[in-house]
Design goal:
The chain is α+β, with helices and mostly antiparallel strands and 96 residues long. It has two helices and two strands, in the order H-E-E-H. Strands 1-2 form a two-stranded antiparallel sheet. The structure holds zinc ion (2 copies).
Length: 96
């Protein structure tokens, strides 16, 4: 691991919340992801994607991080979808 990455990990620990869909959302630390594949296991190894220790916050962009708003994978959830919510509903066939 490079020193630059360690600095990123340190910076990530200071970013306890993020803005999603106009809400301030508390980020989920490594090991506390809802429904993650390692749920119930005592996590002792660092995150396999961003290398943080259990209980630390993931480096932004980590594929293991869960969304604090919807609980899905942070990278693939729609909370940061650039489309306004109203447009997204229409795309899903709301028909209003
Ligand atoms: Zn991670
Ligand atoms: Zn989400």
């Amino acid at each position: 691991m490079t020193g630059a990455w360690l600095a990123k990990i340190r910076a990530a620990q200071l970013q306890r919340t993020e803005r999603l869909c106009g809400q301030t959302v508390t980020r989920i630390p490594f090991g506390l992801e809802p429904g993650c594949d390692g749920e119930g296991l005592a996590r002792t190894a660092p995150c396999r994607d961003c290398a943080v220790s259990p209980g630390q916050l993931h480096v932004p962009g980590c594929c293991i991080e869960a969304c604090g708003r919807c609980g899905a994978q942070r990278l693939s959830c729609l909370c940061t979808d650039p489309l306004p919510v109203r447009q997204r509903r229409r795309r899903m066939g709301g028909g209003v």
